[in-house]
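Re: that chain you flagged

S.,

Sorry for the slow reply, it's been a week of failed gels. I finally had a moment to sit down with the sequence you sent. For the record, here it is as I used it:
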Amino acid sequence: MRPLNLVRPSLALLLAAGLSTVVTPAGAAHAAAATVSASNSPITFTSSEQLAPGVTYGSFEVSTPRGVTVGYLLTADLSKNKVSLDLLHPDAVAQRQVISSMANDQGAIAGVNGDFFNNAETHAGVTPTYSSSGPEIADGAELKFAVPNAQRFGPGLAPGTSTRDVFGVGVNGKARVDTLSLDGEVRSKKGTIALSGLNQYALPVDGVGLFTSEWGTASRVRSTCGTDTSRSDPCSTHTYEVTVRDGVVTAVGQAPGAGAIPADTQVLVGREGGADTLDDLVVGDRVQVGEKLVSAGKPKLTFAVGGAPILRDGAPLAGLDTKTAAVRSSAGVSPDGRTVYLVALAGRAPASAGFTIAELADLMRSLGADAAVNLDGGGSSTVAVREPGQAAATARNSPSDGAERLVANGIGIFVGRH
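Prediction finished late last night. Pasting the structure tokens below so you have them in one place:
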């Protein structure tokens, strides 16, 4: 099936420059439907409103070979000095919460759901951690790194992409799609051990992962399950865990543990070869543990959420799925990094046909995005909005589950936060 052939000029420009200028006394602007013609599939913008200077929200419809798809678009102009993006997240990495609650707890004016996450398990006796597959950076704090590609939940990745890819914003205030790597090590008199994980539900085979207080109380056993080629492979039986407090090893053991990690404590978990290297450490050893996430692009990211790239340099990536239509969410950015487009489709219903990933890429391009990522979809797809005069954000897209799904993270739009 051919992807939709959508066109520029962008719907986002239509929303920002035209429809959003009509404002009712209540602050909502539901304008007469406007249509942008496309060679194959017209896109009809059915409503819009300005949530704040530089932030708009609207709904649209797109005709597909399967019927009409209904979607919702948030645009954020990051050149406005009071508009910013940041990670919506629960109190712990290994935890979940609905998007509207995260937005309200953190003071976001609007947001969409984020990355795919560990929401199911095939391993006997292992409980899902509900942590995301990709990296997380929130307000400059590096919360977690990425699991191996084969351990990811969600549809297949486009060739040349990985779980380390993110949608984020740099210290210069510009959004971009980038790739993160982990630079970390454990140093002691007995040698140096490279880190291959940070607060993630799956470590690479032979790897050593670091868990901090940000992880939460969830069991760390899941990090040693599966392999680099299969998420469902058995859990490793060759593991080791080392607890470090204030730079001194305070406990060692064969099996990964669970429970809250104090702020002054770090827990190292190794599997296979990584377990062998950790086994050299004993109680009383002094160690230094350091880690940082390094972006391929510049400058340093202050916010990042995992996402599967689908659009680069204004063109859909090769190898995107053209057959499976589903409810989807996406984040995209304009060529100058200043305008962000957040999209969530309506929950599955007779009137909403969904998009293939190739169609989603085409849609994001038509909105004006130069780069974009696919976010978690299905029942996770959510757009939450707090309109002017409202006390709280609420979900607007009738999520597929009939109510908001508990998810690992999201992308929030903030006004006047910094």
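What I noticed first: The first helix runs from residue 11 to 17.

Talk soon,
D.
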